[in-house]
Every structure is written in structure tokens, then in C-alpha cells.
Design brief:
The complex is a heterodimer. Chain A is an alpha+beta fold. Helices cover 35% and strands 25% of the residues of chain A. Chain A has a five-stranded antiparallel β-sheet with strand order 4-5-10-6-7. The N and C termini of chain A lie far apart (49 Å). In chain B, 27% of the residues lie in helices and 24% in strands. In chain B, strand 20, helix 14 and strand 21 form a beta-alpha-beta unit. Chain B folds into three domains: 153 residues, 2-Layer Sandwich (Aldehyde Oxidoreductase, domain 4); 167 residues, Alpha-Beta Complex (Aldehyde Oxidoreductase, domain 3); 333 residues, Aldehyde oxidase/xanthine dehydrogenase, molybdopterin binding domain (Aldehyde Oxidoreductase, domain 4, 2-Layer Sandwich). Chain B is built from 21 helices and 30 strands. Classes of the chains: A alpha+beta, B alpha+beta. At the A-B interface, helix 12 and helix 13 of A face helix 21 of B.
Chain lengths: 277, 781
């Protein structure tokens, strides 16, 4: 297995022609574990660490563009993430451990497409779009379209993610990420919830976006729960009712970390965190 | 083998002084070489083909393809083992390579040596083993039934490795007279040692036929004897060297890779062989802590004095006995806790199943039974309406008391002092404030446990150490350590003791780690006896060497001053000896030059005194250690916070109040205590070991969850330093006591918060949320 270091996106595209089964390695925090475990090694890995085009963060008037190769640590340190995207800031703060955050990237977390990926629920509630490049050109698709199943994205052979576009949230919006893992660090989410909330002056919900991680094959979005909450004043009682709806809407599984039943409870209960905050 | 320690200080160490360990710097910088760090020139890699069934008869092993592969040096099976092919201490029941039957998943079937790891992997895959699966038993209760498949046919008691009963006073009938009684049934889980350095070593055949090996082992001297029998090679034809271990906790108490290494070296044409388990292989093949099923019934009178205990303990030792009998003994001996209970019946059994092998693990049965008795004590105190701490104090053993297993405590007992210190501590006094200050959706509580832990091997197996100390020709002091240092810091403590007696700085001392060729036979690094026993031996050797040095210096001064001198006028100082009245000095190096080798080397043999009490009960346990003589004591307190939305639990504060005799080096002592307590937190809350029909589901570090630094609270360690006559400088063993009470303290705290007990296995968030739900406390703000 060769490890190659393209310097430009053009070079990267050409590598995909030479090595059709080649795979991109960004931080390697997921890929190297998978390769060791499953052993199906591709003929080449394309490291993107020298691809400057993937490393930048661009702040525009109404949106932000984050290069796919930006690490979680870099994101966590950016003032704009802390000030405008608390939900994403929360998520990268509890993702993995310091070494993982220093090498793992946003693009990598996205392309791993795990329902437990910590940055995914925040990207759903933020309405992120994924910028894709490949031999046939470029396209930009909403995250919910991009992610197609557990470990499965819409990327075709030779295509890769160049970055993530996120619209700036409304100035008064509240957002947060709640995660339950088996320990406080280095934990894969058993269940998680990303929230984006705008309230009217009379405290009724103007707009709410919710996305749950680890309780279905992909990040779960439940429009009926959002619709139920819209126009209501959030209280423990209302959120409990929403929780009951949510726990019926998610599709969790039993695995080594938790039972489906526990995940259903968490799906509901994590909503109550919103009121505490 | 000398190691490279560069102590942080050259100042002479003094007993009682807090100082960084002599091995700290070289470990932190990576200079220190562990067994895994040895890559002999031109070495081969050795690896194991492992069983794919929990219980099966091997019908054929086809090694032809593997053997023919380029780069494969040897493919060995049990046919290549000349000796008994059986390992074990009391019960020699475990083959090095399976001969006919495999009894657990991952049992070793064949051994391969190859030029590279890649070829090794391919060769292992190319070995074809055919099996006839046998009925298997995974439940220890089912293993005891008459219908069960038998793992080791020919044994008198079927699958029961050892069972016995201890009864004292009037036994169970006294329960009927008790004013108050409480019952608990507790099942505790397996635990993996999860040391950083997985099982590893290198070995080679020397020209004279000696099999030399550098291995990560707690038992270099005993390994020789075990290997000798299994391979039918004289024990003197083995040389075992044990560098510092990257953790062991009991998991390297006995043979891990040594049998494979020796066998591989015999078939390697004189080349060295190296073995190093990957993490998954460690989980598959390594030993674990025994799970236990316990039933407790405890009673007290109206005044709150404990009167009667009836309990039963069933442990699962897996496919082979390993230390199963000894773990059961220690569990039973400690089953009643450190309390005066005059009437008891303690039934215990340890059984074979087709599960992974359980053996020694820090605590050695005591954390299991502490989880039983301490939860029973809490329940009884609550039922009878007594304060949880005062109730323990009222019943605490003292020096001269008799334990619930009839053992007369002749040595120091500091439990009452520990309880009083905790009673006065802010974390206990402010417990109500803590409970009442929980934030939204949180519940807070405090949990308490008291425990004790025996030091040493008991009355039958001699607990000995042979120390050796050398004044080298160049004047520096060489300390020979006969017992492995698996990370607890005993090697550094030997240097501290020698430095104290000879008043020499670390810059004038070096340590020689265990090597059967030059250190002297000593028992294992285990049983909270390592520094206790070897410390006594090294103290003796240092006293002898000091006397010799001064005697020889006296001759020299007498010649210089031309008069009769008195040895009391001489003082040993770093690197020199001073004659105080005249102020004259001679360098230590000069004295060394005046001594021949037989004088420069001092040795001292020490065997621990034992409990001579003849007990009318638990006769079968005597060989396994019952009764002990010296015990360390602890009271542990945790402050907990539970999340009512998720069941997540946080240990917010932890107090260890420890009586383990005098403390030689407070810093090293505190590290030991904290390490054990952290491991206890893992055992209680995180390490949710999962088996399915004998197969480990949590077989790597992404599924076997160890606590991280984020999950361990700040800890406070309070010492009750009673001086123990048996111990060097008054110390007692401190290696295990701090893990013993953590699970029970946490379980008691959780029960206080929820109002009900979680009685099965690891206290995960999922179980806690379910318990909160059943108690109507889920999502309560």
C-alpha cells in the first residue's frame, strides 16, 4: 500500500485515475482503525495533509466555508465557531480525545458517515451543505442528502469533499450539543442531540431544529417533533411530550455500548437539557 | 540485568521522606527498556494459532502448508513438547499447547516462528485445525450440576476446583436470635487487567543449552520451576530476566508467553525469538478477575452489635485453575469484612467453565466479597436505624479481636482510627449539604466502605526473599532486586532502604533487576508482600554490609592512628567513612579495594512469620493461605452525582483513609493508593466486561471501557501510620488495599441516591437509568 501526498486538487484527481481503489486519508483516526480491523487495504492512500486548498476557513457575510481538512482542534480554537456555532463548538469539544482532535478533520468525520459522528448532528441542524469535487466537476449538496446510510455517502469513485458550507445562524439563536457516552472522553456517542433554537419575544418557539446521533442508521431528524414544538413555550412538560414522540420516531439498535431501549430513553430525555440550559 | 535509572536526585534517601521514584525519569523519557523493547539481532517472531471453539476435541491439525511457507522456521504442536505440557501452581492442568481438547476460546493450539510478522500471520492462517465441538458450560451454577459437561474428567468434584465452608461460633442458627437482619445478593463482573504492556518477551538458546529469556513476568523464579516440569528440562537450564513491567496487576503472576518462548527457542536453531501479544490477543488469552455470585444475610442485636453472618460465594475460574483456589481462599477469609461477628457460616466454591481463565488480579477476591459484605452492612445499618459510619466503628475489629473467619488479629489493626478520621473529615461531615446541593436533573450522595487486606501467602507456602547487596570494586553500591517491579515502585524502595542504612546517595547506587542468574531466589511480586518481604531481606543485607564496611575501615584507621579504635566512632557518609574523633576520612572505594568479592557481597534470607493458629474450620483452605497474620485496613468514601436524564454517574470526590503501617515514601505510597482506587472506579462503573457463550465481546479498547483521567476525581489520601512489628520500618503491604472498597463504596452511594440496589455487574449509566425509572426518579428535576 502506497501513501501519496498530492499538492493540488488536480493532482488528487489524477491519483484517483491511476489508483481507482485509492482512498483519501485525512487524520486517519477512523481509516487506520478500519484498515487494521478489516484488513482490506487499498492500493494507495492519498494524504491530504499538504493540500492547502482543504485547510482554510473562509468567513463570508452570510455563511462560513470550512475546508474538509480543517482539524477539530482548529475548529474549536476559531472565535467564529465559538461565537456563532456553539453547537459545533460543543461537539468538537467532546469528540474523541486531544490527540484525535488534533489529527481528525471535519471532512473525515463527515465521510466516515457514522451515525455516532459527533460533528454530524450539529451540521444537520445548522443546514450545512457539502462541497464535492471530482472528475465530472463540482457540486454542493445538503448534508442529509450527502449521508446515505451508516458508513455510506453519495460520493462516487474519484469524488471527494472539499469543504462544508454553513449559513450563519440568526443572531439570537441558541444552539447546543448534548452527548451521552460511556465515559467523559474518548467516547463514542450512545446517543446525542444537536439543537438549534430561535424564540419569539413572547418566549414561544419561532424555529427549532433537532438532530439525534447514534439512534438510527444515520443522524435522525424528526420534523413532526419540530412541528409540535413550534409556537409553544418550552417547559419540562412540553419537552417530555416531545420526547415521547421522538422516542417513537428514532430507530436505535442494540450494540455493545447500549440497548435500543436505553437509546430511546435518552432520545427523549436529552430534550429536557434544553430547558435546563 | 542492570537498568538505566537516572534518579532525579542524588541526595541520600531517608525512610519516611517523600521523593520521586528512582525509575521515574527514565520511564518518562522512554529510556527504560521493558520486555517489549528488546529486539535481539536477527530475531524471529513467534505467534499462536488459537482455538475457534470454547470446548472441542481437536481431530486434526494440518501444519503442512504453513510449514512449507518461505520464511517460516518452525510450526510446533503439543507433539513437540517433551515434558508434562502442563502449567499451574497447585493444579497443573493447563497445557502450553492443547493436546486433544480445547476448553476456552482462544486456547493455544499451535506455535509458529517466522522471519517477519507478516509471514507469521499468513502461516498461522494456513494451519488447518479440525474440531469436534463438545457441549460447553458457561454458567458457574450450571457447571456445578450433575448434568453438566465436565471440563477435566477424573477430578473427584466434577467441575468444582475447590469448595469449603468456614463456620464460627453458633454459625447460621444465631441469625434467628438477631433483632435486625438484612439480605443482599450481589453478582460482580469479570475485569481485565488492561495493562499498558501486553504479554511479551524474547528468548534464545545459549551455547550451553540454557534457555535465556527476558520476559514481562511477576514471577521469574517460579517460572523456571513451572517451565522445567512442563518441558522436562532442569530448572537450572532456564535463565529468566524480568525488567520493569509495563503494568501487570496479577495478570503476569505466572506463565503467559514464557512457555511459548522456551518452546520456540528450542526450535529456532540458536536464533532469538520474540513474542508480543496484540491488544486483542491479550483480551483473548490473558487471565481476568474472577466474577462472583454472592448471597449475604447479616444480623445484629438491638444495640447494633453484629451477631451473625450467613454467606455464600461462587466464583468462576474459567477453563483452567490458575490461581482460582487461592483467590477463593482470600475471598472467603475476608468475606465477613473487618468486623467482629461471632457466629458465621461462609460457604465458597470456585468452578471450572468454558469461559476465559480467571486468576490473580489486584485485590485477589477481596474487592468481590467487599462488595457483598459492605452492601449488607449498609442495608443492615439502615434497617436497624444506625449511622452508617458509627455502625461500622461499633463493630470494627481491633488488635486482639477475632475476625468473622475466626482469625485472631495479633498484629496492628488501624480500622477504628481510619473510621474516626473519616468521621471527622469534611466530606463525611458535610454529606447532607452535598446531598441537598444537587443541580437540576442531578442527584447526589455519599458512599462508604471499610475493608481489610491480608499481606503475604499464609501459613503453608513460605513467603521468603533472598536479598543481595554488593559494594562494587569501584566503591558504588549495587542493589540486587530478587522480586519484579511491575510498576508499584518496590525497586526504588529497595534503593531507598539501602540508601538510608548505608547513607549513600542515588548517584552512588545502582539496581540490578530480577535475573535468575545473579539475583537470588525470591517469591513473586504479589499478595501485598513484595516490599514487605524483600524489604526485610534487603534491610538484613544492608546491615551486614554496613558492619563489614565499618569493620574494614576500622582496621585502616587503626593502622593510620596506631591505636585501638572503637567502631562506634566511625560514621558512614556518602562515598566515604569518617573517624569522628580524629576527623580522618577514607573513601568507600578504598575500603572496597581492601575487600575480596566474598566480603563485598552481602546476602540475607528472610521468611515471613506466619499465623500459627490452628482453626477447626476451612481445613481445605489452609494450603491456599488461610489464616493470614498481617492485614492492612482502609475506609473509602465517595461523593457521587447521578444524572436523572441519562443515568450517567460521576465520582466527584474520593477519600482513601489507609492504615498500611508506616509509610516509607509518602509520594510513592499515595501513587499506589490512587492507582488502586482508580482501577476500582473502572471495576465499579466502566469496565463492563461482556461475554457471550465464552466469547469476549469487549475485546479491545474501543469496547472495553477504561476510565480516562477525565473520569477520575481528585483524590485525597489520609494515612494512619501505625508501626507494624513484622514489616520493615513498620510498613505493611499497600498494593491492593485501595482497590478493595471502591466498588462497594460506589454501590452504597448509588443505593443511597436511588433508594434501590443494582445488584448485577458493572454499574453502567444504562442500569442506573433503569433503576431510576423503576424508582420513579427518572428525569426528575
Amino acid at each position: 500500500m502506497e501513501v501519496l501526498f498530492p499538492r493540488t486538487l488536480e493532482e488528487l484527481k489524477e491519483l484517483f485515475v491511476t489508483y481507482p481503489d485509492g482512498r483519501i486519508i485525512a487524520g486517519g483516526t477512523d481509516l487506520l482503525v478500519q484498515l487494521r480491523k478489516h484488513g482490506n487495504k487499498p492500493s494507495a492512500l492519498f494524504s491530504v495533509e499538504h493540500l492547502e486548498q482543504l485547510q482554510h476557513v473562509e468567513e463570508k457575510e452570510t455563511e462560513i466555508f470550512i475546508g474538509a481538512g480543517v482539524t477539530h482542534q482548529q475548529l474549536w480554537e476559531l472565535p467564529i465557531i465559538k461565537n456563532y456555532f456553539p453547537v459545533l463548538h460543543d461537539a468538537v469539544a467532546v469528540l474523541g480525545s486531544p490527540p484525535i482532535r488534533h489529527s481528525g478533520t471535519l471532512g473525515g468525520n463527515l465521510c466516515t458517515a457514522s451515525p455516532a459522528g459527533d460533528t454530524l448532528p450539529p451540521l444537520y441542524v445548522l443546514g450545512a451543505k457539502i462541497a464535492i469535487s471530482g472528475k465530472t466537476g463540482k457540486r454542493c449538496v445538503p448534508i442529509a442528502e450527502f449521508i446515505q446510510g451508516p458508513g455510506c455517502t453519495m460520493l462516487e469513485q474519484g469524488e471527494f469533499v472539499t469543504g462544508i458550507q454553513i449559513p450563519l445562524p440568526a443572531p439570537q439563536a441558541f444552539s447546543a450539543y448534548y452527548k451521552v457516552g460511556k465515559r467523559k472522553a474518548l467516547a463514542i456517542a450512545i446517543a446525542s442531540l444537536a439543537v438549534m433554537l430561535e424564540v419569539n419575544p413572547d418566549e414561544t418557539v419561532k424555529n427549532i431544529k433537532l438532530a439525534w446521533g447514534s439512534v438510527g442508521p444515520t443522524v435522525m431528524v424528526l420534523p413532526e417533533v419540530e412541528a409540535f414544538l413550534k409556537g409553544k413555550v418550552l417547559s419540562d412538560e412540553i419537552l417530555s411530550q416531545a420526547g415521547k414522540m421522538a422516542s417513537l420516531g428514532v430507530k436505535p439498535i442494540d450494540d455493545i455500548r447500549a440497548s435500543a431501549e436505553y437509546r430511546q430513553c435518552l432520545t427523549a430525555n436529552l430534550l429536557l437539557r434544553i430547558c435546563r440550559d | 540485568m542492570c537498568q538505566s535509572s537516572r534518579p532525579l536526585t542524588s541526595a541520600p534517601s531517608v525512610i519516611g521522606q517523600s521523593a520521586p521514584r528512582a525509575d521515574a525519569l527514565t520511564k518518562v523519557t522512554g529510556e527504560e527498556r521493558y520486555a517489549t523493547d528488546y529486539y535481539p539481532e536477527n530475531h524471529l517472531w513467534a505467534g499462536i494459532k488459537r482455538a475457534a471453539y470454547p470446548h472441542a476435541r481437536i481431530t486434526s491439525i494440518d501444519i503442512s502448508q504453513a510449514k512449507g511457507m518461505v520464511g517460516v522456521v518452525a510450526v510446533l504442536t503439543s507433539k513437540d513438547v517433551q515434558g508434562s505440557n502442563r502449567l499451574g501452581i497447585f493444579e497443573k492442568d493447563q497445557p502450553i499447547l492443547a493436546d486433544g481438547i480445547v476448553r476456552h476460546y482462544g486456547e493455544a493450539v499451535a506455535l509458529v516462528t517466522a522471519e517477519t510478522k507478516e509471514i507469521l500471520k499468513q502461516a498461522l492462517a494456513a494451519i488447518v485445525v479440525e474440531y469436534e465441538p463438545l457441549a460447553a458450560v458457561f454458567d458457574p451454577q450450571a457447571a456445578m450440576s450433575k448434568e453438566s459437561v465436565i471440563l477435566h474428567p477424573g477430578r473427584a468434584d466434577g467441575n468444582v476446583l475447590l469448595s469449603d465452608e468456614i463456620s464460627c461460633g453458633r454459625g447460621v442458627e444465631a441469625l434467628a436470635d438477631c433483632e435486625f437482619t438484612a439480605e443482599v445478593s450481589i453478582e460482580v463482573n469479570w475485569q481485565d487487567h488492561a495493562f499498558l504492556e501486553t504479554e511479551a518477551g524474547v528468548a534464545w538458546l545459549e551455547a550451553d543449552g540454557t534457555i535465556a529469556m527476558i520476559a514481562s513476568t511477576q514471577t521469574p523464579f517460579r517460572d523456571r520451576l513451572e517451565l522445567a516440569e512442563a518441558l522436562k528440562i532442569p530448572p537450572t537450564k532456564f535463565r529468566v530476566m524480568a525488567p520493569y513491567l509495563g503494568g501487570a496487576f496479577g495478570g503476569k503472576d505466572g506463565i503467559t508467553v514464557q512457555g511459548f518462548l522456551a518452546l520456540a527457542a528450542l526450535h529456532a536453531g540458536g536464533r532469538a525469538v520474540k513474542m508480543w501479544y496484540e491488544r486483542e490477543e491479550h483480551f483473548l488469552a490473558g487471565t481476568k478477575r474472577h466474577p462472583a455470585i454472592m448471597k449475604y444475610k447479616l444480623g445484629c442485636d438491638q444495640q447494633g452489635m453484629l451477631q451473625a453472618l450467613d454467606c455464600s460465594i461462587l466464583m468462576d475460574t474459567g477453563a483452567y485453575s490458575a490461581m482460582g483456589g487461592e483467590v477463593l481462599e482470600l475471598a472467603m477469609e475476608h468475606a465477613g469484612g473487618p468486623y467482629c461477628i461471632p457466629n458465621t457460616r461462609i460457604k465458597g466454591a470456585v468452578v471450572y467453565t468454558n469461559n476465559p481463565i480467571a486468576s490473580a488480579f489486584r485485590g485477589f477476591g477481596v474487592p468481590q466479597v467487599a462488595a457483598g459484605i459492605e452492601q449488607a452492612v449498609d442495608e443492615l445499618a439502615k434497617t436497624a436505624g444506625f449511622d452508617l459510619l458509627q455502625f461500622r466503628l461499633k463493630n470494627a475489629v481491633r488488635r486482639g479481636s477475632v475476625t468473622p473467619t475466626g482469625v485472631l488479629l495479633t498484629q496492628t489493626v488501624g480500622l477504628s482510627e481510619c473510621l474516626k478520621k473519616v468521621a471527622d473529615h469534611r466530606l463525611w461531615r458535610e454529606r447532607e449539604l452535598w446531598q441537598n446541593s444537587a443541580p437540576a436533573f442531578k442527584r447526589r450522595g455519599v458512599g462508604l466502605a471499610a475493608c481489610y487486606h491480608a499481606v503475604g501467602f499464609g501459613p503453608v507456602i513460605p513467603d521468603y526473599a533472598n536479598a543481595k547487596l554488593e559494594l562494587a570494586a569501584d566503591g558504588h553500591i549495587r542493589v540486587f532486586a530478587g522480586v519484579s517491579d511491575m510498576g508499584q515502585g518496590n525497586a526504588a524502595t529497595y534503593m531507598q532502604i539501602v540508601g538510608h542504612i548505608l547513607f549513600q546517595g542515588y548517584d552512588n547506587m545502582e539496581i540490578v533487576l530480577p535475573d535468575t542468574a545473579c539475583t537470588l531466589p525470591s517469591c513473586s511480586s504479589s499478595a501485598s508482600r513484595t516490599t514487605f518481604t524483600y524489604g526485610n531481606a534487603i534491610t538484613g543485607a544492608a546491615d551486614i554490609l554496613k558492619e563489614r564496611i565499618l569493620a574494614r575501615a576500622l582496621l585502616l584507621f587503626s593502622f593510620q592512628l596506631l591505636e585501638q579504635l572503637n567502631v562506634q566512632d566511625l560514621v558512614l557518609l556518602p562515598g566515604r567513612i569518617v573517624h569522628q574523633p580524629s576527623g580522618r576520612e577514607v573513601p568507600l572505594q578504598l575500603i572496597a579495594g581492601f575487600m575480596d568479592e566474598s566480603e563485598r557481597i552481602a546476602t540475607y534470607s528472610y521468611t515471613c512469620p506466619v499465623n500459627k493458629q490452628v482453626l477447626p474450620t476451612g481445613k481445605k483452605l489452609r494450603h491456599h493461605g488461610y489464616p493470614h497474620r498481617v492485614f492492612s485496613y482502609a475506609v473509602q468514601l465517595v461523593r457521587l452525582q447521578v444524572d436523572t436524564l441519562t443515568g450517567e454517574i460521576e465520582v466527584c470526590d474520593l477519600l482513601n483513609c489507609i492504615e498500611a503501617g508506616s509509610v516509607l515514601n509518602p509520594q510513592v505510597f499515595e501513587q499506589q493508593i490512587q492507582g488502586g482506587a482508580a482501577q476500582g472506579i473502572g471495576y465499579a462503573l466502566f469496565e463492563d466486561f461482556a461475554l457471550k457463550e465464552g466469547k469476549i465481546r469487549t475485546n479491545d479498547f474501543s469496547t472495553y471501557i477504561l476510565p480516562t483521567a477525565m473520569d477520575i476525581p481528585n483524590m485525597e489520601t489520609v494515612v494512619v501510620p501505625l508501626a507494624e512489628d513484622d514489616g520493615p520500618y513498620g510498613m505493611k503491604g499497600a498494593g491492593e488495599i485501595s482497590i478493595d472498597g471502591i466498588l462497594s463504596a460506589i454501590a452504597n452511594g448509588v443505593a443511597a441516591i436511588i433508594g434501590t440496589r443494582i445488584t448485577q455487574g458493572t454499574l453502567t449509566g444504562e442500569k442506573i437509568l433503569l433503576a431510576l425509572r423503576q424508582a420513579g426518579k427518572e428525569a426528575v428535576r
